[in-house]
Structures are given as structure tokens and as C-alpha cells.
Design a protein that fits this description.
about 525 residues, alpha+beta, five-stranded mixed beta sheet
Length: about 525
Amino acid sequence: MVTYLLGIDVGTTGSKALLVDVDGSVRASATTEYPMSTPQPLWAEQSPADWWAATVISIQWVLGESGVKPSQVAGVGLTGQMHGLVLLDVHGEVLRPCIMWNDQRTAAQCAAITQEVGAENVLQLTGNPVLPGFTAPKIAWVREHEPEVYERIAKVLLPKDYVRYCLTGGCFSEVSDASGTSLFDVGQRRWSDEMLEALDVPRRWLPEVTESPVVSARVSARAAGETGLLEGTPVVGGGGDQAAQAVGTGIIVEGVVSVTLGTSGVVFAASETYRMEPEGKLHAFCHAVPGMWHLMGVMLSAAGSFRWYHDALGDWERAQASESGRDAYDLLTEAAAEVPPGCEGLLFLPYLSGERTPYSDPDARGVFFGLTLRHRKAHLTRAVLEGVTYGLRDSLELMRALGLSIGQVRASGGGMRSPLWRQILADVFDTEIVTVNVTEGAAYGAALLAGVGAGVYGSVAEACNTTIRVTGRTRPGPAMAIYADYYPRYRALYPALAPEFEAMAQVVSKHLAAGDEQ
């Protein structure tokens, strides 16, 4: 009998169910969407009930579409959006909508926690600064603003772990997702007693934490009736979205790094030892691979910068694409390929949404620097691609400074469709860029973790070696030496402009406020 693995991804826009054969081939995939609400500016919330309802629909669909029998599903792995706050009462009922990872209401709570514990102590205890997206400041916000809810808290769960609760009846988490709560001792892979005491968070509120491939619970009779899965099917810990995606692309050994070029850009490196960036410029989390950690840098506008450029300045290309049936992005990059590396002195700062790594600065803004009469539109296009790549290299340099040797970069995301951008990455990074056969993201990694827990594979390494193959390679070329000269000039721009970014933000706020009053 053929065995299958089920990966479930409780994402920001929908819940994905993915059935994977043990040889790595995808049998069926389905995503059921759900809404996000913004009750006030900078707020982002979702109903956990929507996650479960969507998960049930997606599981039913892939089982029905594939014809796979419930008895053929060896295990279930969970992944999803990180940092969200789900609060349950003593009856297991949800107390309020989930405060999501992209919610920004908790700036005051982050500052208060950092002052109470001390910035250096926070880094030593958790490996990361306290950020608005993380879970602990959300708990503090509820205590301050919704005391009637706070008094009824019996359990605190993360989004994917709420779906586990619905699927199994058990309250569990795992090390990679727990790492993003500001309540977890990342180095010791356990809840931090010091942080819990400092923030007055009862230990009984928090779920038991396991390693990611460990079977933490099993499908309940009730969930089996709803989803069509077999009662007793093992459910493993799973992983946070980035850790699970890393498993799904084979980023499980030190020296292999992933770069994801989506709207945001993520640089992810596996580490055999616990490493912490001294100023907290990189996230330091537990990996979904037992006994390993990972470092992660995040750029807020990566391929998002190219999309902005396409939308703002790509009218001609969009018109041509409409007439010819070609892709407007391809037309832009083909013209940019004719421009010499370095764009004859034109640089682009990709801070269109502020920045996170290496500069945690919401006031940072995008800049074209070095414009001359010689520059044409193709120069601007290539400068955007190069500027984003320089920004991603910032994360690589921080990792190298911590002793990580980087031998290969595995690239994914929409930006990787461009051969030009892949070559720019290889040249700027001075590292081979490879693509792999897997494109299903975090859900695929969750399925592989389920296979390890179910005994289908002997280890995460065996799971990855069985299923993941390199499909393309781009090696550094002669332009590497040119970019070596331009990158320091790029690095010099933010420190020079940072005071002006802050001053401009104040000017804009002043006049927006004045406009509101008139």
C-alpha cells in the first residue's frame, strides 16, 4: 500500500493541505482562503474558527481529489504564520480574535518589556529583541487594554497550534515556532523561566514544547469525522513557516543558505550551534531539525520593490505585454540586461516599507542615488534589482561575521524566475545560486517532518535527500569584481541618510496632522 504524508499550512491568507508521496511527488494540493480584519489602523486580526473551517475543507478536498484512503496517510505535519496570539478559556473556547504577526499595535509594550528586562538580557535569554510582531507584547497589550479577557486566559497558543488543538484536542507547540514568542530560551530549547517571571506570564498557560518531527498528538475521533482522516493518525510538532520551508528546500546543514525573493526577502541559514547576533540584527531561532538552530534576516521590500517599480513606471511594458502576450517583468529585465553591472554609478535603496535587517528603521525610505543625464529607464530597472540584492547581502555579511561559512545559496520566490536576477545574486553574493525541484513551500516541509515522526524516514536529512533535487545552478561571473566595488558605496548610504529619514518622517507627520485638522 502506497503511503502518503499530509502537510498543513495555516497561512496569512488561507489554509493549505498538501498530500505528498514518500518519494517526494505531490499527489494533491488545496488552499482555502479566509479574511483578515483591520479594526483599527496598524491592527491585523483573524478568527481562529476560520482557520479550522478552511483546514477541514482543504483536507477533505485533497483526500477526495486524490482518491487517497485515510488509512494511507501515515502522518500529519503542521506549519503556518508565526507569532500570532490565540487565547483560550478553561473550556477551550477562543476568547478574542487572533492578534496576528503583522499587527503593529504593541510598540509601547515592546519598549516596556525591553526596559523592564533590559535589552541585553532580552537578547541573552531569547536570542532576539522584543518586536511588535512577537507574541509576548501581545499578551501585555491584552492585559492593559482588555483586562476582562486577560482574567479568563487558560491557554496561549500559536496559530498552527490552535489547528493542532482542533485536530487532536491537545495543546502542544514545537521549538521553531515557540522561538518567536519572546518567551522562549532559544539556546536551551525551552520556555524561559526568567522571561515568564519578568512578564508575569503563568507557565500553565503555555503548551508543552517538542522537537519538530516528534509526534505530539493524534487525530481525535471528532476531527476524524470532520476531516475524513483516520482517528489516531499521528500529528508531529511541525514548524514555523520559515523553518518548515527551509526543510522543504533542504536548508538543513550548515553552509547552505536560502534566499526567498517574495514581496519581502528572507535570508535563512542553518547552524549547528546556537549563534546570536550581538545587536539582535538577525533572528536567532531553533530550527525544525532537532539539535540545530537557524539565523534569519528579513528585508521588507524585496520583489515588492520590483513590483512597485513595475506598477509605477512600467506602463509601456504592460502595454507591450498586453499586445504580445509576453510578461511585462520579462520585458523590463531584458532591457536591464543590456546595462552594465553597477548601472554606471546608479544605486537604489529598497527601503520602500522601512527596513528590518540590518536596520530596524520604520522611517527608512527608498532612494535612487547617483542619477545623471546618461541614465535611462533600463538603468533604473537594473538598479532596483541590484539594490535589493545588496540589501540581501547585508544579511549574509552578518551571518558570515558570526562564523558561518556560506557555500551555496538556494533561491526561491517569484523573483527567481529572472535569469538576470539570479546572475546578479550570484555575482553580488560571490556564491553559487541553485534552484530546486520543490515549489510548494512550508507545507512540503511540514509533510517531510510528518514522515520523520511516522517513521517513514529515519531523519530529516534522509527525508530531504530522498525528495529534494537541485534543478539549476548559476555561478559567479566577471561582474563579481565590479559589485565588490559598488557594495561598500551602497552600505555607506543608509548611515549618511538615516538622520534625514527621521527628520523627513517628522515633517510628513506634521503636515499630515495639519491637513487632518483643516
